[in-house]
Write a structure and sequence with these properties.
The chain is an alpha/beta fold. Helix content is about 25%, strand content about 35%. It is built from two helices and six strands. Belongs to the RlpA family. This is Endolytic peptidoglycan transglycosylase RlpA. It is an enzyme of class 4 (lyase).
Length: about 120
């Protein structure tokens, strides 16, 4: 029983440690923006002028630095929604976040998790 409990604890620590390390890696790709909606996937009222974003897999509340590769401008956003639901895109920014980095349509960005 002790060996099984210890093994289970070791496996859990390994899995959790690996999962925590993945989001810290830099990611990049296409970003777009959205400006309408009533509620986000985490239940908040959508604020189109907020510094928030939608990501497919990062946990709600994660803060991410988004850098527009075309002009070098960056903003820290909070993940509070799910998406994007268009192939080839890695993040959807609320209109306020997009304005902060000069993103007018679809643009290439770099993402990094802020601790």
């Amino acid at each position: 029983m002790k060996v099984t409990s210890w093994t289970a604890a070791a496996c859990l620590a390994t899995v959790l440690g690996s999962a925590a390390a993945l989001p810290a890696q830099a990611q990049g790709g296409k970003a777009s923006w959205y400006g309408s909606g009533h509620r986000t996937a985490n239940g908040e009222r959508f604020n189109p002028n907020g510094l928030t974003a939608a990501h497919r897999s990062l946990p709600f509340g994660t803060r991410v630095r988004v850098t527009n590769r075309s002009n070098g401008r960056s903003v820290v956003v909070r993940i509070n929604d799910r998406g994007p639901f268009v192939g080839g895109r890695v993040i959807d920014l609320a209109r306020g976040s997009a304005r902060a980095i000069g993103l007018g349509g679809v643009s290439y960005v770099s993402l990094s998790v802020v601790r």
